[in-house]
Backbone:
């Protein structure tokens, strides 16, 4: 019988450090899409709090902490990044773990590098820690999360992992070249 070997989306591509910036894979244990049924948002929020300690997020926000986050991912939808969650009455759940490439860009100048690739305002007073956005990352649809000082999480469809790493490397090199 054939034995398959599971590989992450960025296997063999990361980590990379260029200048003061580091790009690393940030694959959570699980990525679960959660969509509450109409009128069930409060109950789903309470269920998430009970399971992972993070409530339903406001639009373009995330709740929780590293290892257990609930991230707004579109109207009436959020991703749980972290532990696998049990079924929730009043919500549709879908395992998205193998569908996404997830990376972290960190270091001094991370916002400057990312600003070369995304059409959103990343200034600290606008895109604060705990904010997130479904947006384009260069030419790919993705999700950008401000997870800490000089630290951003990015997610794109798994099939675009190599392109994401290439585009981020180019931006990191441009920032490093500034000196």
Residues:
């Amino acid at each position: 019988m054939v034995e398959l070997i599971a590989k992450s989306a960025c296997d063999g591509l990361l980590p990379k450090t260029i200048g003061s910036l580091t790009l690393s894979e940030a694959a959570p244990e699980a990525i679960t899409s959660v969509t509450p049924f109409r009128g069930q948002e409060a109950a789903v929020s309470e269920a998430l709090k009970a399971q992972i300690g993070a409530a339903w997020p406001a639009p373009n926000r995330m709740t929780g902490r590293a290892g257990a986050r609930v991230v707004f991912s579109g109207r009436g939808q959020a991703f749980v990044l972290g532990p696998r969650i049990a079924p929730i009455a009043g919500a549709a759940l879908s395992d998205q773990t193998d569908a996404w490439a997830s990376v972290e860009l960190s270091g001094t100048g991370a916002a400057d590098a990312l600003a070369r690739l995304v059409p959103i305002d990343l200034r600290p007073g606008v895109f604060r820690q705990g904010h997130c956005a479904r947006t384009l990352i260069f030419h790919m649809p993705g999700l950008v999360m401000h997870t800490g000082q000089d630290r951003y999480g990015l997610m794109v469809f798994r099939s675009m992992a190599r392109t994401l790493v290439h585009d981020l490397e180019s931006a990191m090199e441009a920032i490093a070249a500034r000196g």
